[in-house]
Every structure is written in structure tokens, then in C-alpha cells.
Amino acid sequence: MPRISDLDESRRQFLLYLLATGSLATLPAHSATLSRLPSRLPPGQSIYRLKGDVRVNGATATLTSPINAGDIVETGRKSFVIFVVEKDAFILRSNSKMTLPISKVSAGIIPTAFTLSRGKALSVFASRRTRISTPTAIIGIRGTGVYIEADPEESYVCVCYGSTELQSAADPGINETVVTKHHDAPKYITGGNNPRILSAPFKNHDDQELLLIETLVGRTTPYVVPKGVPRTRSSYF
């Protein structure tokens, strides 16, 4: 379990990142000082931040829009939304579509956290068994952070920390267990006539984003966010 000093250092690094990238000015007013960094969202609030064309069940979303199991969340071009559903938190990037099915809790059934039919999503989950679906992959997880990019022919999956079972949607016999501490083994899961699981580079997400969304559900990353972590993206898009 992280020490209190570790948590303070992670929060300090998050603030330094915001200052370095100019993001501090765009955060809600309550986040503008070290003592008022983003914190756990209050009950009844789903969305922390959004920009551009964001829709929930087809309706234009605002900061007060609820997001629940069973909803469909979509983003348009140059748009994103950062939100929480129960004990899980997400950054859904531009041109993405995520379906949050109603959880099925019964013997032998592992509930689906979400289906990402297109686009890019960074997610952190509470400690429970669940799964994520894309057009080419089924991703079984338990209390982990994971970044996914999905298109019809290929999915990119980076298990940021935790344990994950990767499986081809086209051929369940193609599968792999990934256990990582810090973005150790990103993968591509291809579809089509030749489904495979391949090694991939680390890309398009970072530790500061993970720290932010873990904070929104009252947790922290399992490691202190290192100093000088390079950004792989210039924004949440």
C-alpha cells in the first residue's frame, strides 16, 4: 500500500505536470491549488470534465449529465470526456463509442465493464473480475488500469498495472495472460483472417492521466508517478 509520503509526491508531480502543460488554467476552479487537486467525485456526479461533442444515449452531455450502467457514451472529433461510473473511472478520447452494459451478477457470469466499439479509452477499475470487449479482443481484468484503442481490424491494449487475460474475439484459442507493474507489455490483438496477439510499443497515455482518474474514485496509482515522465499526447484527445 502506498505510504502517505508517496501519495503526496504523486499529487505534487500531478500539479507540476499541469503547470508544465498549461492544463491548470483549464481545470475547474476547485482544482487550482495544491491543496485542492482533483478529488473523489461527490455522490450523484458522473462527469469531471468534457470538451467538444460528447453524447450520452444520443443526447448532448453537460457536466451535470449522469452516466450509468446501460448507457452509451460517444465523442466526436476533437472531443473527450472524463467520467466515473460507480468505482470505475474513464477518459474517453475523440471519435469513440463506449457501451456500458447493465452488470449481470450471477454464478458463472463475469460482468462486462464496457464495450469499446471504436476509439480510445483509458480506464481504471475496482478490485473485481470483469471484462472489456472490442471488435477484435476480449479483455478479462481484475482491479487494473488499462488503455485501449479499438478499430475493426485491430485493438491496442496496454495493461498499465495489474493482471489481464487477453483473448482474440475471432479465435478464443488465441489468448495470453499479461501481468504488469508499469506498462510492461503492451499488445496488439489483430482480427481478420489471421488473428494474433503481438507485442506493441507504449503510446498515447501517461501516468498523470492514470493518477487523475484514480483520484476521482478515491484511489491512487500503485506506484509514485515518476518525475519527468514524458507525455505521449499533447491533450486528452
Unreliable residue stretches? 1-7, 19-36
Helix vs. strand class: mainly beta
Q: What is the CATH level 1 assignment of the domain at 42-203?
A: Mainly Beta
CATH topology of the domain at 42-203: Jelly Rolls
Percentage of helical residues?
10-25%
Overall mean confidence score, pLDDT: 83
Number of strands: 14
For the biggest sheet, the summary is:
14 strands, mixed
Principal-axes geometry comes out as globular
What does this structure look like?
With 237 residues, the chain is mainly β. The chain has a domain at 42-203: Jelly Rolls (Sandwich), CATH 2.60.120. Helices cover 12% and strands 37% of the residues. The chain is built from two helices and 14 strands. Strands 1, 2, 3, 4, 5, 6, 7, 8, 9, 10, 11, 12, 13 and 14 form a 14-stranded mixed sheet that branches. It is globular and about 45 Å long. Residues 1-7 and 19-36 have low confidence and may be disordered.
Q: What topology does this entry show?
A:
Layout: H1 4-21, E1 47-51, E2 54-56, E3 59-60, E4 72-75, E5 80-85, E6 88-92, E7 97-99, E8 112-124, E9 129-133, E10 137-150, E11 154-168, E12 175-180, E13 187-190, E14 197-199, H2 207-216
Parallel strand pairs: 8-9
Antiparallel strand pairs: 1-5, 2-3, 2-4, 4-7, 5-6, 6-8, 7-8, 8-10, 9-10, 10-11, 11-12, 11-13, 13-14
